Each structure stands twice: as structure tokens, then as C-alpha cells.
Amino acid sequence: MMAFRKGNEIIDWQALSKQIHKGIVELRQEDTCTDFTVEVGEKSFRCHKVVLAAMSDYFKAMFTSGMKETEQNKVVLDEVNPDSFQTVMQILYPEGNVNPLEKPSEDEMSDLLKLSGRFQMPFLRDICLKYYGRTMDTGNCILRWKLGRQILCDDLIWLGYRFIKEHFEEIVLDSILVSVEFKDFLAIIKDESIHVKREDIVWSAIKNWIYFDLEKRKEFIVELLRECCLTEIDPDVFMEEIVFDPVVRQSDRASTLLQEAVKYKRHPGIHGDIELKFRECHEKRQVTLLLARENGCSDGVATIERKDMKGFAVCSNKAWCLNIDKRFSFDFDRMEHGVFSCCVHEQSVFVLTEVEKGIRGSKLWQYEGMSHNWEPQRDMDVALKGHTVCATDGCLYVIGGRSSIDLNAQVWLYNIDSNAWNFDGYIMAAVVNASSIYFNNKIYIFGGRLEDNEAAQCIQVYDTQKKEGTIFGNLPKPCIWSRALVRGSTAFVVTSDGDVVSVLLESGETTIISSIPNFKRVNFGISLQQNELYVFGGKEVENDDNVDEEQIVLKRNSPIKGNFMINVETGEVKSSKWLQKVGISEDYEILASASVVIDHKNLKLIGKTMKNKK
């Protein structure tokens, strides 16, 4: 049998389809072969079962399941608009050149879309969506977005919300957003993908929405302001319009958000300690920068060699590969622990390496987040390992650690502008492998190992103005190999045995807010995002804090077992796939991690992205 080929067919299928349709229309007009009646309200429609069954799965199921309507050849439809069903009939059985949808109202199209779902008519649904797509504007996009969610039509939700995001500035100017309920308004301005040329437009939207019903809506100012990229707003608008806005001034929490934004502008030394928000239309993003290497594994006899260092920039749902400068390389076999200390200043990460065996001094590198360049800075002449680093405005402070012989109680200062190192003062007790944070001109040092090889329980403070060290208080129990960060006036310390400790820096109160089960780990990373503390990577250890650091190194051959997320408000611990979801293996030893703002447009995106569904 010879098959028909496209372009060489003797049957004109399109013409035949038109002829069949024309014949069906004429049969209905003549009331010939019509075998079914649809009654809607006071209107009655004669039609063909075969047409309804072909265009509607609802009617197809009715006619093939032996329902009484099939025997009676009639169905009565309740809660259906007769005019809307008449439009459906006019589409199935068109008469002349009459267009039943020439100038439909929003209510008419809404009814038709609902009918397409109720009676399972894909053709009608496609007609409605095409109409909505072609006629979407600033005056109806909100209404249609709401309709899509009301009737669970994902395509209409997507059409409406895409228009809202792409035309957000026009919608704000038309003040159409003021009619939106709080949860919907919050969802819109929270979306990082809305298109805005200037962030003060988002502030205008917030202000318009609140003042539309001031008494009922002013309570939402903090939640809404938190979703505004405050650091990206024009300074004049920030000071003249936002700071002095009456609703903002009446809220202490709102004023605190503004104060943090001002601090970010004025104090480059705290850039890594403030959680920032950016839009996708911005060239900048705040990321968790990771320097990592894959863990080696043990076959019971010898340890397989670990791979080279890699760099990643990770945000909530994306990750990029960082370029690692060839000069920024290390012979890990010559480094006792292979861990770096790092801190953030402005949009740069400063990395101070552990001293390599046989080499005098520790190397200092600067990673510039806007240009992605690695630049070597002046080496620190003192050869240290196990130290910690903090940034203040214009300076880096190196605390603790030890030389080849003694533990270090000296504090060394690096001046960023002059590229010079100087001795600055002493901490109260020399410690190695402690963690630290900076807050209000003071550096807080948590735990560490003391000269007698015991784990320290104390929290030390080094005052950068008085240049002296004191004991601030005590942790709930001794710890070494911890990681620490600060948000506002609260520090969070994660110990090597899984305790998550909050430290109120103004009062000294310490609390174990959570404990990660079966956690014995060093060289892990932490990141705090919207009250969720992520703990990831590292090396498993089989010892407790009383084993000396030489033995710790010998026992770090076990693969890690999972990453974690801790809610710092409730203390709830959950397993986390944060890194895996963006395409990064969890089996990494974290050599250094920090929160920093970078320009991501020239970086290579890796892994999968996940949609934010909240």
C-alpha cells in the first residue's frame, strides 16, 4: 500500500474538515439528526451527542456510562449562566460571520473559563487563555491573576503574574496594587524577579498600599519593608522619604531595618554580617562564598588523595562556580590542617592561609566580588596556624593561633589602605582553633584550645579601641573547632559536637538553642538566612574535645553524613539538601565560608535551580 506523503496528498484534509464542520452546523440549523437537548435556565439548546462528546470529556463520560440523561436525551445544567453556554454553542455551531467573542466582558470570559474546567473542554480553555494573553493590561492583570488562583488554572496564574512582574512599575503608577490583600501584595514585592529599574519604586508601592487603608495596614510595615532592597535605594529618597515617614518612625522594628541599611553604607567592615536582598534585575547578589575541596576516603589501609580546591557562590536557589586564580594554590600536604581563616570587608573576601611547613609567614589574599579577581596582599610575617580573622572598617584583625612552638596571645592588625601589618595588642588567654565575630568595636572569641591542651569554655573580648582583652563570659560548655556568625546583636556559634549556641552580645546570656544529633565534625560551613541556620560539609571525627589536635588530624577520614538546617527561633533541626539542590555535592570539606555581595553575571551557573514555593 502506498502511503500518502505530506505535500503530495490527494486528500485536502483541511478542506474536508471545514466541509464536515459546515455540514454539522447546517444539520443543527435544520434540526436534523439532533439527538440531545441541553437545558440551562430558561434556555434550551438542541445539539448532537457526537459533537458534545468530541469536544467535552464531561459529556463523553455522560454518554458512555449509561447515565439517565443518555436515556432521556436531555440534561439540565444547574448553576450555569445561560448566556455563557449559548456562547459555547455559538462557537461549536457558528452562524455566518458572527463572532461570539467580539467584545466580551471580563465576567463573560471568566464564566467561559470556568465552564471549560467544569465540562472539560480544552478548546474553550485555549480560546480563553489566548484572549487573556492578548488583552492583558495594567488594569486587569491583578483581577485575572486572582481568578486563576480561584479556579486553580495554572496557565492563567502564570499569564497574570508574568505580566505583573514585567510591568510592575506601570502597575505601581496606576495604583492598582492598593486593592490587593496583604498576603498577595507581600508575595509580589517579595519576588526577586519583579522588574524594577529603581528600588524606590518598590517603596512607593509599599507606601501607597499602606496609606490606602492606614489604620488597618500600618501594622504590616515591618514585613513589607523587610522585602525591600533598602541598600539599593537612592540615598536622597532613603533619607528624605523613608526615614521620616510617619509609619516607619512609629515602629521600632522598622527603624532598626533602616539603621542596618545605614550601617551597611557607612561601615564596610560589617558587610558580611547583614542579610541583604537583591532583585534578579540587579547585577549584584549576596551569596555564601565557599572555598572547598572534596573529602578523601579511606580504604582501610591508605587515604585516597583529596582533590584540588574549588570555589562556589551559593544563594537561596542558585550556585555559581568561582574562578580560582592559579596563583592561589596550596600544597595541602605541607599544611597541617589545610584550613583558612577569612572575613568580609565591603565586597571583598580576605583569606589568610594557615602557614605551610617550611615557609615563613601566612599568605593573605583578597577576592574582589565585583571583578572576581584574586589579588595577593602583603604576607603576615608571623607564621601562625589555627588563627581566626575579623574585619572592622578598614582593618583586619588576626587573633589566636599558634606558631611552631607557642600559642599566640598577640593580636595583629592589617590596614587595608596601606597594605601594612602591625602588632595591636593582646587577648586575655592564648587559644588555637577558636571562632570569632565583630560587634560594636569589639571582637568576641569563642572557645578554642588552651595552652594546657584543654578546650576553653570562655568567651573572650578584644576591644579594638582600648586595645585590650578581657573575659566576657562563658559558653554553656567548652568547645573548639567551632564556627560563628552574627546577626544584629546576637551571635550564633556551632560547635564541633553539634551544639548551636546563641550569645546575646549586649547581656552576655548564652543558650544552647539546639543540638544536631550524632554530629562530630570539623571544617564545616555555616550560613544564616531568614532565621534558618544551614550547617554543611566538613570532616567527621571520632574523638571528643579532649583529644589533642594532632590526633584529630589523624582521624579525619570518615565521610560526612548529611547537612542540616536549624530554625534559630524554634530550635527545630531538619536535614538539608541546600547544596545538593543547586548542584553541589554535600561531601566537601569547607576550608572557608563567608557571606559577601558579588556581581554574578560573568560567573558560570551550575546545577539546577529550584522554584521558591512558599
Can you describe this structure in just a few lines?
The chain has 614 residues and is of the alpha+beta class.
Features:
single chain, 614 residues, alpha+beta, Serine Threonine Protein Phosphatase 5, Tetratricopeptide repeat, Neuraminidase, five-stranded antiparallel sheet, four-stranded antiparallel sheet, 19 helices, 30 strands, 28% strand, disordered C terminus
Question: Quick one: overall form?
Answer: elongated
Tally of separate helices = 19
- Give the strand line-up of the largest sheet: 29-4-5-6-30
Unreliable residue stretches: 297-306, 332-336, 550-557, 608-614
User: How much of the sequence is in beta strands?
Assistant: 25-35%
The appropriate CATH architecture of one domain is 6 Propeller
* Subunit arrangement of the protein: single chain
Q: What is the level 1 CATH name of one domain?
A: Mainly Beta
CATH third-tier fold name of one domain: Neuraminidase
CA gyration radius, whole angstroms: 33 Å
- Characterize the biggest β-sheet: 5 strands, antiparallel
Record field, number of beta strands: 30
Under CATH, the homologous superfamily of one domain reads: Kelch-type beta propeller
